[in-house]
Amino acid sequence: MTSSDRAHRLQFLNLSANDAEALRALRPLFEQRLDEVVDAFYAHLLAFPETAQLLADRTTVERLKRLQREYLLRITDGCFDEHYFEERLRIGRTHERVGLSPKWYLLAYHQFFQLLCPLIEKFYERNAAQGRRAMLALHKVFMLDASLAMEAYIASDRYRHLQQLESIVNDSADAIFSLDADHRVRTWNRAAERLFGWTAMEILGQHVSVLIPPELLHTGELMRIDEALRRHNHYQAQTVRLTKDGRRIPVELTVSLMRDPQGQIIGRSVILRDIGERQRLEEARLQAERLATIGAMSAKLAHEIRNPLSSVLLNLELVRDELNTLARQPGAEVAECHALLKSIDAEVRRIQRVTEDYLQFARLPKARRERIHLNELLAQGLSFLQSLFDATGVELQTDLDPRLPPIHADENQLWQAILNLIRNAIEAMPSGGTLTITTQFAPPDTVRLTIRDTGKGMTEAEQRKIFRPFYSTKAGGTGLGLPLTQQIISEHEGRIRCESTPGVGTTFFIELKPAAETNYG
Ligand code: HEM
User: Quick one: fold of 3-161?
Assistant: First the structure.
């Protein structure tokens, strides 16, 4: 401790030369009465199990009484030099080393004070003012000593160890928090703040149910965890948790019981790991495998089906011509033949469409990206679709952010991706509805496109599958539209996700990066 540290501390306490003088004047009293003070102090310590257990050994007590006496006498030197500070820090370190809790240590200063005050009062019976000055000076010294003792505790290995543990918990990438016996949040680390969006200030004291999706609460998730903890002290599972803004996140959950030294349950510790990214990577891997299979299949389809299909259509045309010639002969009845031909034609064209979808998927050309303005792309594309919106009873609303920076994209492919989403939206609203298309710039580097419908919506199980090839909820759908959209967006280094509520509608969010040379200012 530097000399200026020491000086500041004495100034803060206002420990003056007068105080030193008042303390020195106590010396004869201390010399005369310290034995009984120290005896009374130890009698007090022995009356409490937590302090008595440290004094079980008779010789320790005797040694300590002597050291205590010296300690108190030293105060009446009235000299608070470097040596004094060092000695007090050492005493603090000894107490920390013997395992004395700082709370008993601090309370003991009061005990000393309480024992000494009546003696001082008596000593200054005829000069009460001097007695008060002496007591005040003694109080200052005890506070100084207590602060030095605390410093020794704080610098101790055990405390540093606790601090290290605290920083491990705080800096952990996993959300770590604890609950009391009533399931209320007691501690909350930084990763928990990031994962859930609740700050520690907001969440402390709240019931843990605010983090659990209602459907899991209703099906008894908390009770299941409690039941498992009763049997194994420990619970581990993959589940879903709820963020402050209502998002559901897949997590790996570990809950353990916390007990006090007597074995009583005092709460639970909870560790949560966000496994959304892991699941997304796994899904992306599966997706890549599926896409590779489709690619191979589609190339084969092109050869095996596409050409024969064209000739079937051509021949159908020829048969239709023959039929028309026949129809001109008297008595010929060709109406039914025409109807049959029409239906064959429709079916063949359907197969052709499916084949084209596959082909498009397999042969998605490498994106040719250039600097484009998404708002312009949308304005232009949507104007061509107006008649489609009119015919399907869909009202289009747009809100395009004028601050939107240009992006680096293949205009045709991006429009194809957007068009797929618009088509899906229209199909989800068979009796009309509202389609809202929004663009938004989220500085510094996100261009967001949102496509929202008021259609029939999807369940969570459906939402998980929509980007899988061949998954379709529509009659006659190939299940390739959304995978194609996703592939285009990911080739543009963007992200696409969807939120949907059955009966309310679906929203797709696409996030893209602004073109590199954009000046955001
Ligand atoms: C105002 C409060 C206290 C003061 C001023 C005080 C003073 C001292 C002093 C001067 C020493 C010798 C340290 C050394 O030379 O390194 C010591 C050691 C010790 N004190 Fe205290 N003490 C206080 C409170 C307590 C309390 C509440 C306990 C509870 C039992 C306690 C238990 C001990 C023990 C176990 C040792 C170590 C003894 C050994 O050397 O084996 N002290 N104390």
Answer: Globin-like (1.10.490)
